[in-house]
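Try it yourself: sequence plus S-adenosyl-L-homocysteine, in.
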Amino acid sequence: MTVSTTHVPATDLGFLLHKHPGRVQEFQQSFGTATVFYPEASEQRCTAALLLDVDALRLARARGKDSPDFSLGQYVNDRSYAASSLLGVAMADVFRTARAGRCAARPELADTRIPLEIGIPVLPCRGGAEVAHRVFGPLGWTVSAEPIPLDEQFPGWGDSRYVGLTITGTMRLADALSQLYVLLPVLDESKHYWQGPDEVDKLLRSGEGWLAEHPDRNLITRRYLGRRGGLTRVALARLAETDDVSADTLEPADNEEARQPEDRRVPLNVQRHEAVAAALANLGARTVVDLGCGSGQLLDRLVKTPGFTKVAGCDVSARSLQHAARRLRLDRLSERQAGRVEVFQSALTYEDDRLKGFDAAVLMEVIEHVDPPRLGALERVVFGTAHPGSVVVTTPNREYNALYEGLHGMRHSDHRFEWDRAQFTAWADRVAAAYGYAVTMHGIGEEDDTRGTPTQMAVFTSEGDSSSE
Ligand code: SAH
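Structure, out:
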């Protein structure tokens, strides 16, 4: 695999990758040796090459006794000649710091999108060149995937299952490496056999910021997890819990592997946005603040709805706010629009005057991220001090988790708790009584007879306030 840039001075690539352009370095892997060297290193263009020399014997040993596949195929295969998911694993190890986006010598460069060209001369590509276009294209890459003939001397034999892949684009290097880490095993024909129980976490971590929005996220998730149906369902359920999925990914992926009934449903977080937007419309709210707005998907929807005269969002995470600003194109708003939209950083457990004066506030999938001992502070800040005309709160219904096959524990690693319906109702009743609100309870998502809906929603309206009528 080669990684090239023309960002001047191009030799800064050495800093980003933490590998000196003047040296040849070897890194031992359980299945072979990875070598990093620079075929070219000038101011104008610099290329780092990762060469993986797979040792079939070591690979067979690394697979160990657990593997049922003790056959000749372990020793006689294409591993020495073709890129594979092994290359992804070696890359993740050798360029670990670069993939994490850390670079003490050039921190701003690590955060910058730079022109990149990544070449993989021989890549087994399940489903053919078209699949390479489908998985890399939506991420902003220009894809060239040239089928490699079975034998150049016998054109009649047709193409092999290998392609020569080149992707070019302007990306953060860390994003490019994370995408490759996921997508190499997705394209590779052979089994991604080193799956451990943390594969779902690895996938979601590497897929952060791009996988949930990818039109082929179902295909990618299924292939990455190697058709382990249970893991795949958990991963897709957890992807639906992130706020990355946008409404335009509603179309089910059109491919043989994705034709499963669950893919035809509207993703849960889209249903959640619809339900919250409908609740706000019902309340007649014209000014809204989205508390814990994340990457701003709901804000985007509200901004596009003419009825809202003021739309604000806040979050404790600066990174989420950056995403939101980008999504809302805050740098390009007309003056009139700019007065209507605002995002700011705020922690909901501390009083903040900027939260005051709204018709309605939204707490969508936020309270379960707050440590239980701090929840009282959030209640005081939101329902007490800010005291909007209405508050719409959503949170997972823990009873429903039993229907996510293979899900152990909570839906998201950052959740501090997940409540059943009785717990959420008790909380809502107590908060409503304490701060002078009336509250109604609702469900969002497909309802199960005994377990209810995946998401629950409480709508609070201030009793001393007529602005929300
Ligand atoms: N409301 C969005 C995001 C939900 S994820 C959606 O439904 O898609 C939870 C969000 O709450 C994260 O963005 C997190 O940064 C934010 N958050 C968690 N605790 C917070 C706090 N104390 N103050 C402000 N935001 C908080």
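One thing you can check immediately is this: The chain has two domains: 2-231, 262-462.
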